[in-house]
Structures are given as C-alpha cells and as structure tokens.
C-alpha cells in the first residue's frame, strides 16, 4: 500500500520539483509527435535503402562476373587484342554470309579465302619485325613483282634451254634464284638504312618505284607464261592440294605439336622458377588449339573437286564413275601449308632466338639496346634481308597461282601487308607485335576483300574500305597504348 502511494506521488508531483524530469517528459512528447509526422518519410527511406541494397547486390554480381572473366584470361594468358580480332573476324564472316545470300561461309569460299591469304600472310610475318624496330617497308609489293618476274623468266625462257622443259629441278632452281634476288634487294635496302642513316620510309619508297620499273624493264612489259607444272603446285588448285588423307595426317601432327609445345612451355617455366598456368588452363588451351585444327581440316576436306576434273581423273585412273558422282576432297592447299610453315618458323625466330629478342629490344628503346652492346645496324640489315626473302616466297606463291608473271603483280600489296600487321596488333611506335596476330590480320583483310567481291562492291570502293580500316586500326592502337600507360 505504501509502495503504491510512493509511485503515485513520484509520477504526479516529481516533475514539478525536478526540472530535468519535466524536460524529459517534454522531449518524449516531441519525439512522439515527430514520429507520427515522419512515418511516411521513414517508409520512403526504407524503400530507398532497399533499392540501394539491391543495386549494390547487382553491381557486386556484375563485378564478380567481370572478375571471373579477368581471372580466366589471366590464367590462360590469352591476348585480349587477339581475342578482339577473332571476334571482329567472326562478325565480318557472319555479316558477309548474310549479305551474300549464304555464299561466304561455304567450304568452297573458305578454301579459296585461305589460298588468297597465303602470300600476304607470308609477307606480314616479316613486316612485324620491320615495324617493331620502328621502320617501315613500302617496297614489298614491288619486290614481289620483281622476284616473280625473275622466276617467271627463269623457268619459262632460261632453264628450258639448259635443263629442258618440265625438268624435275626447274622449280628448285627457280625458287632458289628468286630467294637470292629477294634477299639481295632486302640486304641492299637494309644496308642503306643502317649504314647511310637514310630513313626507311625514303629508302623503301624509292625501292617501290625502282623495282616496279625493273619489273617492266626485264620483259619490256610483256607477261611471261606458262610456269613449270611442279612449280604451279605452290599456287594451290586441285593438284596443288594434299587431299583428305594427308590433311588428316597433318591435323594429327599439328595437334601433337600443340600439346608438345604446351608441355615444353610448362617444363621450362618449372625449370626456371616462373609462375605456372593452372592445369585446367593447359587442358583448355590444348583442346582449343586441337579443335581449331580439326575444324579447319574438316572444312577444307568438305570442298570437292569440280565434276569435270574429277571425271577426267576417274577416266585416267580407270575408276568407275558412280551414279551420284565422285567426291574427291581438295584438302589443305600447298600455299596454305607454306604460309603456316613460315609463320611457325618466324614465331620461333621472334620468340626463341637471340635475334628476336634483339629486334624487340631495339624497338623498345634503340639507344638502350645499342648501349647494351647490341649491333643495331647489323640487326636492321638482317631484318630487311629476311623481309626480302619472304617477299620472294610470296612471289612464288602468287606466280604459281596465276600461272604467269605479270607487271601488275604485287601492286598495293605493301598496303595490305602493312595493314595486316597493324590490324594484328603491331604497334607503329615499335616494340610490340606478334606473328600470329599479323597472319590473322591478313585473314581479316582478305575476308573484307572477298566479302565485298561476293556482295558486288566495285573495286574503287573496296580500296576506300581498306583505307578506312587501316586508319581505324592505327587509331585503336593509339588508344590502346594510351590506356596501357
């Protein structure tokens, strides 16, 4: 009873005698009134916080997804620029396939595309080393035409008088003479650049004019034909392909080489204490490489010989002509094999030999390379000599494919070669470039040309497109280097 009276007294009279309690009561009443007023605002605030939480969750999911892609690329060590170029190539193929009414992505067109790419791809591998060292070669098309004319005259006019027509050694002698001529021209131009300190742009621009004029002077402007039958195999065609069986054998060899290269790379990393790729990344790269090889061989084996040629072959070999026709696969073309072999050798030179390391060191910092003891002038001479040799090999492919040596052979090939190297990721500022990227760039350039022909675009507009693509490629390279810094 006494406790109840005491509680009643404190509740009723204590605020009168104690001001702090009176203030607390007023504060409580104020808070209650504010709470009732802000009830809608609190609801909006809770909704805003919920939306922010959901947005942050979505952003974190996107970041996690982007992070997983980055981790995948870092683990497999794939070149992002190369992946971008592959994506652009696929878009070009799909676009032209739609515009051409389904004619682009056919075995016949893809087989022809691979043959047409071969000569420019061969020269693009050498152009990478030239541009990496901050030089340029504008004379590659003229060297191709000059070397091709020399080889045409050798096998059509000179060697038949010495060895006779269709001699087994004709193509060997012709090819060696062409390589010597191309290498000699490259050495001459490289020596002028290295020892006389004349800019490569001027020297090779002069070479463009000199060797184009020399091509006309050799035969006074006439076309030389036909070529030796064995020499013509380097140009492709039904007889210049290795057939289905040997194509599959080549595919097996290529897959074994890919797996061996990955295993050797892992062994070398472990030997020198470098970081190792995850095992799953090694399996992925091996599977991807083998899948590309098998897919390519399956496509080229799907392209049969023309009916008339297959019928003549059947009659000559006593094969009965089936009711549904005789299916004989072209297989991989010999010029494509030559281009792939050149690409493999040039990749080995650029990445495994001391010469290749010197090339990239000069491109990165010429002054530092010279102070480090690298004989930069002799390296420059060797690069241009190698470029001349590759032009001669490309000339052999082009001449054999045309079955003739003409004065217009190789015109504008310098543009396509430089464009292929730049589109493939070779920086005009020097120090950066890959052989595989340049060959893929050559395929992109030839895909554009082939697609525009199928669509029916005129030649002048084709050149406009190629010029625009080259400018855009250099612009993208500039942006890429700016972001890298």
Structure description:
- The chain is mainly alpha-helical and 485 residues long.
- 77% of the residues lie in helices and 0% in strands.
- It folds into two domains: 17-59; 82-241 and 333-484, no CATH class.
- The protein has 18 helices and no strands.
- The longest helix is centred in the N-terminal third of the chain and has 38 residues, at 39-76.
- It is globular.
Q: Could you describe the largest sheet, including whether it forms a barrel?
A: none
Give me the number of helical elements.
18
In helices, the fraction of residues equals over 70%
Distance between the termini: 86 Å
Q: Can you write the helix and strand succession as a string?
A: HHHHHHHHHHHHHHHHHH
By helix and strand content, what is the structural category? Answer: mainly alpha
Radius of gyration: 35 Å
Q: Which stretches are low in confidence, meaning pLDDT under 50 for 5 or more residues running? A: 13-24, 34-41
Shape: globular
Question: How many E strands?
Answer: 0
Q: Roughly what is the average pLDDT, rounded to an integer?
A: 86
Number of domains: 2
Could you tell me the strand content as a percent range? under 5%
Brief rundown of the structure:
The chain is mainly alpha-helical. The chain folds into two domains: 17-59; 82-241 and 333-484, no CATH class. It has helices spanning 2-17, 19-37, 39-76, 80-99, 107-132, 140-162, 170-195, 200-219, 243-272, 279-301, 307-316, 334-352, 354-364, 366-371, 376-402, 413-423, 435-455, 459-484.
